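dude i think i finally got it to work??
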Amino acid sequence: MPPSKADEFPLEKTPNYLTSPQAPKLIHAMNSSIKLILTIREPVIRSVSDYQHLVQHHQIPKVWNGTHNVIKSMEATMLMENQTEVDPK
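look at this
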């Protein structure tokens, strides 16, 4: 993120900070007086949004359905092989 001026309020919207164990220490080292606002989305809506993003960016593998390749469903994408339920992690 580029440096900001005294009259500017920089914004960052990266959800990866929530999943990185190193993030809190790195953020504190960068600016120990930083004030953060955390906005959390409803988990199902967030999951659907993530899936749609992956589809739009061609990051969901296609599977053979017997006649042609199709994009894996959200459910199939979330489930690992031989798994019957989604891992809540």
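The helical segments are 23-30, 43-56, 74-78.
im so relieved honestly
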